[in-house]
Amino acid sequence: MDPEAAHYERRRARAYRIALINRVLSSRLAHIEDFQSASYILSTATGKHEIVHDLGGVWHQVEVMTNSKFDPLDVGFLQSLTR
Known about the structure:
By secondary structure, the protein is an alpha+beta fold. The chain has helices at 3-25, 55-66, 75-81, and strands spanning 30-35, 39-44, 49-52. The protein has 3 helices and 3 strands, in the order H-E-E-E-H-H. The protein is globular and about 45 Å long. The chain starts with a helix and ends with a helix. The model has no long low-confidence stretch (mean pLDDT 90).
């Protein structure tokens, strides 16, 4: 694969991951956006914004910003996504 095609493939994959995570975050009235293809901006419905450097940090920052525990791997939560 040539470098240009690889670049576009990485961007498509990143956009896909963001869409999936936003589906999960919608239950917390939060969402992420890409920030310079290097990190993410996490926003809540109350207008709070934070830069998060990796996807692993998203879950912790959601808890901090919403003042509530959030486990995206909780069985009950995962079942609610399929409804």
